[in-house]
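Hi Y.,

Following your request, here is the sequence exactly as I used it, all 226 residues.
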Amino acid sequence: MLYDFLLTEQPVNCLELGFAHGASSGYIAAALDELGRGHLTSVDLDSSRDFDITIEKTLAGLGLEEIVSIHRETNSYNWFLKKAIEAQTKDERCEPCYDFIFVDGSKNWTIDGLAFFLADKLLREGGWILFDDYGWRYADALAKGKAAGDGVSIRDLSDDQIDEPNVAAIFNLLVAQHPEYGNFKVQDQSWAWAQKVRGQREIKHERKSTLKSRLRRLKPTPRRAP
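Below is the corresponding structure, written out as tokens. Let me know if you'd prefer a different format.
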């Protein structure tokens, strides 16, 4: 579905915040490869170097390593976003540079809430932002015996933050209330989409459908200029 979406929307520059083993990175890079242009920037923590399967290994196995720039930060991709904003700032204004941003990292209100406002400065008009793990809760991680998630000590959080899906709170209270965004969609309490346009304000809830995404991709659409 992510591959179909990218082939349909045809973004040029993509940003991925949180890549783990590089599975989603592979889908995004494969779509850009199919389109014949574009680049993916993937950002995660230094600890991802120690995974049994790294993003480098995943992309090398697919032959897609040339399409992806990999960046690692000590404790948050927000520091990468800060540096990206600095690099894009000319005459005291940040020039947006990404067409699609995929947030698939900490799932924490503080970290990803800030990440949205930072990413917004880098997302071009008409571009899309996608949040994974809309319904994920720290309580579910605790039930599986996990004491920490993406560098966050779960037991240091308040009971209500542990119990509430943090990404859902970010999407409903920050993204969906932002006046420059519209076309909101939540799929299977998992993926949450928003487009940087003044569009439809209602949040649509629907099931994920591979068939629907495939049919939409196969529908003839004008190709964007490189």
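The CA atoms of residues 1 and 209 lie 8 Å apart.

Thanks again,
Q.
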